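Quick one:
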Amino acid sequence: MRVPTLVLAALALTLGACGRKETAQPTPAPRPSVEIGVSLLTRTHPFYQELEAGLREAAAKHGYALSVQAGEFDVARQKDQLEGFLVRKVAAIVVSPCDSRSIGTSIKAANDAGIPVFTSDIAVLAEGVKVVSHIASDNVAGGRLAAQAVVRALGEKGSVAIVDHPEVESVLQRVRGFEEELGKHPGLKIVAKLSGHGTKDAAFRTAEDILQAHPDLDAIFGINDDSALGALAAVERAGKVGRVTIVGFDANPEARAAIAAGRIYADVMQDPREIGRRTVDAVARYLRGEQLPVSELIACRLYTKEDTVTPPTTPKP
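Output:
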């Protein structure tokens, strides 16, 4: 009896299939169920690069996904980033505001959407908005340390200038601490306080103006290291290195090198990586239903030329 051709073909296909091993398909990795939207002041500064590293370390520990962006000092750009996080319905938002007051409308929108907001390094000053918790350096105490460094360098008499950036809450705190501490020494007078906008180029121009207006200036407090380094460039151009004492804030690598060379007197040292870690830990605790403090402040310390010989231990509260 002849077997129909179609039956033979079907039998051959069946036997061939039995002789092959099925290739196992990889199981796709599960996507994290919790996404946190992060908008930093900037990602170009070493401080915020370290802070982001701390955020990512803690996010990996908790199994969270991070979407990290930066306003790069532009609050309108930062507002757009926060609006994008609302559209994506992230589990939480972390922000380091470019402008502590103007960002308030975006924080209010997150409040209305039921998305918890946390601030890292820089607080929100807008009224009528809710931030779950603020994690940052103790900037008031840091400002006092900067003033103590000026006192150590000048003694009880001299003229002092501040290269400021008053749009940012953390800077307001630093300057407040600096002015309070310096006020204990009546012979030390603040003769100028002008904004350098937190950037090296702008701080250079600001410091040049201050030096021209106050040729006998004794010291400059730069509210971050870009401000201090910009002021240093102006002091160098004026031929006053060693005559004008400079104190900065952050202790980034370039500033530490300048301290080692004796061109900057001292810096207030923060721990941005720890700020990042604790920020994500605070988010995790909140999502577990824990009550959090309104703020969590991390200690600073003073970094001087002596520390370039014996590196300091990062402060822990």
